[in-house]
Amino acid sequence: MFSRFLANYKAEDVVTHDTDVVVIGTGIAGLYTALKISRYADVTILCKKGLTESNTNRAQGGIAAAIAEGDSPDLHREDTMMAGAGLNDLEAVEVLVNEGPSLVNDLIRLGTQFDTEDGEHLALTREAAHSRRRILHANGDATGAEIVRALAVQVRNNSRIRVLEDSFAIDLVTAANGSCKGVLYQKDDRLYYLQARATVLATGGAGNMYRYTTNPDVTTADGFAMAYRAGAQLQDLEFIQFHPTTLNYPGAPRFLLTEALRGEGALLRNIAGERFMPAYHEMAELAPRDIVARAIVSEIEKTKATFVYLDITHQSPELIKSRFPTIYEFCLQYGLDLTSDWIPVSPAAHYVMGGVKTDLFGETNVRRLFACGEVSCTGVHGANRLASNSLSEAIVFGKRIAERIEEFLDSETGEPMPLPQLAHVMKSPIDKIDNRRLHLQKVMVRYVGVKRTRESLERALSELGKYVPMLSHTYSKKSDWEFINLLTSALLTTQAALLREESRGGHHRNDFPKKRDSWLKHTIFHRDVGVIEERC
Asked: Which residue numbers delimit the FAD-dependent oxidoreductase 2 FAD-binding domain (predicted)?
């Protein structure tokens, strides 16, 4: 069903060059991993757009680490496992909570300026489902942008790192034995084959499968789909995290309003002005994200509204403006004053808990192929990611990937391999489908959203099935490559959601509203094998 390569090419027309290690994607995962690898090897970073365009750049809340008095890795582990609803990999969580604190200090060494109290102690806040204040933040609510700024400076000043911006990674190239040999990419309307002894995917998630998302436009499931076509296993794709509170206001984008607002006391009210979260969970507004998102959808359905309100007006204007300057200024552009107005919000697609399955050193089942950040599935997040664990995961496993690659670069020689000649593939039978990307996004919102049923999921597969013939053909345009990547991810996500007949974490089935012990297992997809179920 799936064409092995997306691009229409003749091997003799493709420019070949090489590097020791290629990192595909930026954000905290790509930048930090590249810096660690550059200690012993030459690295090329492929950026789909600019070096700083990523989900990380938009991250507001912060980065989680147990560094405060009264906190501990054990408490961080308990919170992470509780949020993950029984599907976390305990070993991966232990790695995260124990190795994270020292690497936060490494970010500081690399130039990240986290907020402090009295110019001395690191300022910490609390977010949903955390039992302690352990979230480091920068510039109030612009943590991701500050981390990216600091890492980008280091990358640009590193003589062992080459940055190729506006370079679209199309497909991974593999040898007959399945080992990854590099990547086929497009830059300036020209195709290139970058040979590498190791390849790291750091391409982010798949938020643009949905009509409403907190992700930038570049997040089109490219890493998931590339890895799948290359023979990598994809795990737990049914678990999509919908951020509960994104701005829902006419003329405004779905701008994320960080969880830290609720950590600082913000309340959720329905259209009638009634606070509702205590009726849904004992932790009220600080319940895990999946619970808050479903509660908001339930209130929207109950009141026949299109949003609920986020209310932090009881806090002092000084605190709001100093702690959340980015959000305050953004809302003001649309006539909304965070200090005096209730802000209309609703959930939007935010994060994929699943992804390319890796081991504890970020390696996939495809030799010499690694994955880091949201594109990966290390097992840390289980069925639902604990707030601010994503940035921690990226640096912890980025460092481990660098250690693993160093081991085998020292012990093995990577023989170069010519780009395989592409067999002639006919043009897609579907010449042009107007608004196909928008249609896919609407299908996913309507039928594979916060709440799901067998009927809705089967309807989604039927609607998406109209595009399935496109999967067996090759293309020459970026928009087509992005659509095929989104379609691949959407089909696998929907199939996984249909298979899992229970509700757990970021996957909720109205027809199976409870967790079931028989589903304490992972759903894994492989291009050739099909569906694999793996017990926890």
From this structure: 20-391
- C-beta separation of 254 from 212 below 8 A: yes
What is the average pLDDT value for the chain, to the nearest integer?
Answer: 94
Active site residue 367: no
Amino acid identity of 231?
G
Q: Which helix (H) or strand (E) holds 171?
A: strand 167-174
Measured over the CA atoms of residue 74, residue 76, residue 82 and residue 85, the dihedral's sign is: negative
- pLDDT tens-place string over residues 443-502: 999 999 999 999 999 999 999 999 999 998 899 999 999 999 999 999 999 999 999 999
β-strands 116-117, 521-526: how paired? unpaired
* Topology at the third CATH level for domain 436-520: Methane Monooxygenase Hydroxylase; Chain G, domain 1 (1.20.58)
pLDDT confidence of 299, banded at 50, 70, 90? Answer: very high
Whether residue 172 contacts residue 180, with contact meaning beta carbons closer than 8 Å, is answered with yes
Residue positions counted in the chain: 536
Per-domain residue ranges of the chain? 244-349, 436-520
CATH classification for the domain delimited by 244-349, as one of 3.90.700.10, 3.20.20.140, 3.65.10.10, 3.30.750.24: 3.90.700.10
Q: What is the 8-class DSSP label of residue 518?
A: G
Comparing CA positions, the residue from 77, 62, 241, 190 lying closest to residue 136 is 62
What are the tens digits of pLDDT across the range 391-431?
Answer: 999 999 999 999 999 998 877 666 778 898 876 555 555 55
pLDDT of residue 432: 57
Measured torsion, CA atoms of residues 292, 293, 299, 301, in degrees rounded to the nearest 10 = -160
Q: How far out from the chain centre does Cα 513 lie?
A: 26
Q: How far is the CA of 112 from the CAs of 134, 143, 280, 342, in angstroms?
A: 17, 9, 38, 33
